[in-house]
Amino acid sequence: MVAIRTRTPFGSSAAGGGIVIPIAAPLLADEEADAARAVVLSGWVSQGPQVAAFEDEFAALVGAPHACAVANCTTALQLALAALGIGSGDEVITVSHSFIATANVIRYQGATPVFVDIEPETYNLDCARLADAITERTRAIIAVHQMGMPCDMATLMAVARRHGIAVIEDAACAAGSQICMNGQWQAIGKPHGDIACFSFHPRKVITTGEGGMLTTSDAELDRKFRLLRQHGMSVPDTVRHNSTSVIIEEYVVLGYNFRMTDMQAAIGRRQLERLPELVGRRRTVAAKYGELLGNLEGLRLPTEPAWARSNWQSYCVRLPDRLNQRTVMQNLLDKGIATRRGIMCSHRELPYAKAAQRHDLRQSELAQDRAILLPIYAQMTEDNMRLVVEALRTELVR
Ligand SMILES: *Cc1c(COP(=O)(O)O)cnc(C)c1O
Predict the structure, then answer these.
(1) pTM of the model
(2) Which atom of ligand 1 is nearest to the CA of 211?
């Protein structure tokens, strides 16, 4: 992949205060710019033929019967809950240890988030703790494939099916990740629960600026997503636009405007073409990190279970107890290396002071406080990786 120009606006000295190695860098080039330009000049810029084509191509890539594009993953998760009819009085089990949107969508629907702890090795929901969190009000589980690492869907689905609970996969970070089910490697998004939700924010592996996608095997759920994302409109504007006879639409349910634009979808189609290569490169970077960091005493590296293939949306390492997380991050930043703290815990933020039920969340809190995310992106060079590793080594021998 030569001649790809990648701009890292937050990595330039002007914007990033001398950052040499950014935490992430989307890979966008002439193909994406040309695709967006063609849509701008086509005369149809809102949800239209590009969105439809993006949906078809995404569905084919993950092996899903249906894919529905929306404005972002937060709206995708909200639509998933809405289409399942989840609302006031219902409980939804999920992790606190996730981007806050995972919990927020439950509250948008008037339902109560019930937080369970994570496994320290994968940073994903600990399925052994599910049974204790299930009550007669539990209607759904939102299983997060955190940082692109697949959840243990076989175990999780067995528990959910036994209790008749719906499963939504928060696959915001997991486009291009795979899971081995019944001896077969399958893309996350097939889906393995009832609905999977993806994000195309620039921090994820492929991007449309903002964007999201829902996949499902259930035609009725897909129909509801399409209705709800467009104001509950009985006949889409694209159909009316192309009709030779007058069509008057109705508004049959309380819907939303959660649409993706055709510019975004056109960019997304080019990004989809890159996805296998982007994931391949990230897996190479992660393997190299594993090799280089493996010799560093006291550092705990992320674990990939035998049945999982992560897209390595993030690379998370756990610091030894004697090191201060913020100090390590600052020392690296002083060398031009951006890092992030471990994934946040929603239950520690003000909107969740009273608004959630929680079980023991010790592992979630430890992961937030003791882990840091290292720079990882497809075009990361081995030289840059060595700079990160050397900077970390200096911290560890301090
Ligand atoms: C990024 C992210 C989201 C939100 O995605 P948006 O597209 O920004 O709305 C939700 N859940 C998780 C786990 C995420 O990482």
Answers:
(1) 0.95
(2) 7
